Amino acid sequence: MNTEVNRRLVIIVRADPVICGHSGEARNLAEVALTRGFDDVRIVTWPLDRLEETGLPLKPLDTVLPYSPGITVERPGPVGGYKIPDGRYLAGMVGRLVELFTDGVPTVAMSLYLHPHTTAVADALRIARSTGLPVNVTTIAEAVGSDITDVVRSAVDTGEFGAAAAVLSTYLSQDVCVAVSQYTKDVIVASAAELDAMYGTAFAAQCEERVRISYPAIDTSAYLALDDAETDRVLASRGLRRGEYVLYLSRLQKAKGVDDLIRGFAASEACQSQTLVIAGRGPDLPYFQRVASRTKAKDRIVFLQDVGDDEKPHLMAACTAYALPSKPAPEFTETFGIALVEKMLAGGGPVITCDTGGILEAVGDTAVVVPSGDPSALTVALNVCAAGMDEADAEWWEGRAREHAMQFDRVNVFDRLFAMVPGAETPAPPALIANGRRVRV
């Protein structure tokens, strides 16, 4: 029995430097865990060279903020021969989880993305229990969206019963099953119902009953009460000025609607004195650059690929408008919209987005919503936003957006999530001594 560690949280995820909101969510949950009685917090993820090989969009390493002391990021290396290229990395991850699960420390293991991370947890737990060593592990599986919209949906559509059943069965084998939005849960249940209808299985009713909603955890403090001088410094370093640019900041892939935004911006008369800043990395960067180069606004469109975590809030806070015109696509659907909430917290101009996936759960009624895949609608929205509104109206809209976004604060999300975990209730706040008496804070 490990006598030095009393309570452990293990999060299995595609972690930094991957450009993904759920990478940030894992960080936020880990940071809160340190204040909630966990004295050992581990993030188990993939080796950097393997992440690079996959083609995932990655942040420059020197822009990634450090984790707090007490959080250990582990990147198990591959195990086995070169003839098993993919399985070697999964074997390394499963092996490390087995080691963490068999030292008797009370552990909560949370996986984000059902395949392969929840699969790795399920395999590791089965192996750990077979060893006869002490195992005290509770599991949480979070469906973030693409693991259902891509893996399960495509398996159902192509009649690959086994693949779809494997994901759903593994998901339901975990102690706590959550989804990042009601939209995501609805997709899970609908996909399971299709599988049931085709093959006589019984997944849908189980998913409907067991899957609960846990919205992504966001560090609201990083976006509130920003220092104006630092914002001005960040803007100056990028050659930008307050209220003189429209911002897109997210992964660069076609399903995000960046090409529609470029065309809508180029056609906007009110944006003729504005710059369009497209910040991020992703597989479709060359395509978007070509689209931009063919517009009359090409000299007013800037691509930034090296925006760091510390810069992001300042760029969001000072823009004329922030646009994320996502549209549904077979390979990706916006199942929540973490960047939208971050922008709402930072303040500044309004959010322009679309009613796609779980986006409306993120923004409520505090954003300008346009039809997806419609550049002309984006032009109209940009004309309204760039024309500006009086100070009182701007403050009112900004306040409503921030108030809505505060429900996703990482402490609130963590506490709500762990209230679902059997035997893992968060401890009461620490007691202070005041005038010789113990006082709760």
Topology record:
Layout: E1 8-12, H1 21-33, E2 40-44, H2 48-54, E3 71-74, H3 87-101, E4 107-112, H4 114-130, E5 137-143, H5 146-157, H6 161-172, E6 176-179, H7 182-199, H8 203-210, E7 211-213, H9 228-237, E8 245-249, H10 258-266, E9 275-279, H11 285-293, E10 301-304, H12 312-317, E11 321-324, H13 338-346, E12 351-354, H14 359-363, E13 368-370, H15 375-387, H16 391-405, H17 410-418, E14 431-434, E15 437-440
Parallel strand pairs: 1-2, 1-4, 2-3, 4-5, 5-6, 6-7, 8-9, 8-11, 9-10, 11-12, 12-13
Antiparallel strand pairs: 14-15
Helix pairs in contact: 1-17, 3-4, 5-6, 5-7, 6-8, 7-8, 10-11, 10-15, 13-16
What is the percent of helical residues? Answer: 40-55%
Largest sheet composition: 7 strands, parallel
| Span between termini | 33 Å
CA radius of gyration: 23 Å
Alpha-beta classification: alpha/beta
Strand content is 15-25%
Number of strands: 15
Give the strand line-up of the largest sheet: 3-2-1-4-5-6-7
Mean pLDDT rating: 90
The unreliable regions are 427-441
Q: Name the assembly state.
A: single chain
Task: Count helical runs.
Answer: 17
Principal-axes shape call? globular
